[in-house]
Amino acid sequence: MKHIPFMKPNLVKSETYMELLKEIDHSRIYSNYGKLNTRFEQEIVTHLYKGEGFASTVNNATIGLMLAIMIAKRPQGKYALMPSFTFAATAQAALWCGLEPYFIDVRAEDWCMDEKIVAKHIEKLGDEVAVVIPYATFGTVADFSYYQHLLDNGMPVVIDAAASFGSTHMGKGVEQSFSGPIVYSFHATKSFGIGEGGLVYCKNEHFIQQLRQAGNFGFSEARESTQMGLNSKLSEYAAAVGLATLKVFKEKCLVRQSIKETYISKMEKLGLFNQGWDYHRTTGEVAHQNVSILCPKGHLAVEIVSMLGEYGVEARTYFSPACHQQSFFAKYPTSDLSVTEEIASRVINLPLWEELVDEEIEYVMEALAAINSVLLGESMHEA
Ligand SMILES: *Cc1c(COP(=O)(O)O)cnc(C)c1O
């Protein structure tokens, strides 16, 4: 039997950044927004954002979210509106900022937070809303112009685009419809993996300046703490890995897109979409972190994941449990979450890593088709 792991992160090899490590040895600058970090940020703004806007690295996206939320939030507000269908880091970051997560349902179409429900809650909660934190689900470049409209009307918004770095739609990323802070993760398991790291991008220079100050103990230029702060700095070693990753990232994105397309076209050929299976619709050329599908209604993703395990295929169920289903977050307020609960019960993430070959994808699909026959058999018995 084959063994197909869920992921096999493959970061750039040391020989591709050896020269940069030697630069560190020579400069003896190891952190504090050093030369390599500066080069890394500049290359990102120049090449990924065509010279527009401002960016600061952070040591991970959770810290990036904490800083961005802290700076953006209304001081008197209480709630951070966010989807429940996201990673726990978003809710944790809001709590660290003294806010309560308020979980909002997602749309069935693209699994992003439902703007109509957000609007209703802003109307209902008024000044109690401190910040709105949409999530660009699984790397999508959704249209965030509703959130731009909120921002323009004085409502703080921070976008969690942890898995969207490198995703584009008509040549631009999430920033094409949103000018506020956008937070990306460079964790090893993300498409742009450097180990630990992240980036906050914003078209407002002052916001990025404040964020860097907050991420450096709240120090002013005179090294006096003038605001709340912590340490969010990326080390020069991580920046070296980042610079080397930028050189090969385009290729990585293409490989990831092609793996996703192969999966979906095989599912189509097998006729699974006519039998209740579905998949996550994304917008743009997405640097896929995973391939997310839905099993037929009435079946449980966790059971199918364990059946896949019997074929040696390691799959996952992100984000199940959804945030509001996790014990620590269960006490916080929510909208009706029926779409979230439905997706969470049916979502399966299939293996995705860059050396995954067609033959292995074929094997995963054969396993899924075999499981589907078993499911069909079961439903026939029931009928
Ligand atoms: C990965 C991820 C994070 C956290 O990123 P780190 O860099 O590991 O802190 C936050 N939100 C979402 C949606 C993520 O997928």
Automatic annotation (TrEMBL):
<dbReference type="InterPro" id="IPR015421">
    <property type="entry name" value="PyrdxlP-dep_Trfase_major"/>
</dbReference>
<protein>
    <submittedName>
        <fullName>Aminotransferase class I/II-fold pyridoxal phosphate-dependent enzyme</fullName>
    </submittedName>
</protein>
<keyword id="KW-0663">Pyridoxal phosphate</keyword>
<dbReference type="GO" id="GO:0008483">
    <property type="term" value="F:transaminase activity"/>
</dbReference>
<dbReference type="InterPro" id="IPR015424">
    <property type="entry name" value="PyrdxlP-dep_Trfase"/>
</dbReference>
<comment type="similarity">
    <text>Belongs to the DegT/DnrJ/EryC1 family.</text>
</comment>
<dbReference type="InterPro" id="IPR000653">
    <property type="entry name" value="DegT/StrS_aminotransferase"/>
</dbReference>
<keyword id="KW-0032">Aminotransferase</keyword>
<dbReference type="Pfam" id="PF01041">
    <property type="entry name" value="DegT_DnrJ_EryC1"/>
</dbReference>
<keyword id="KW-0808">Transferase</keyword>
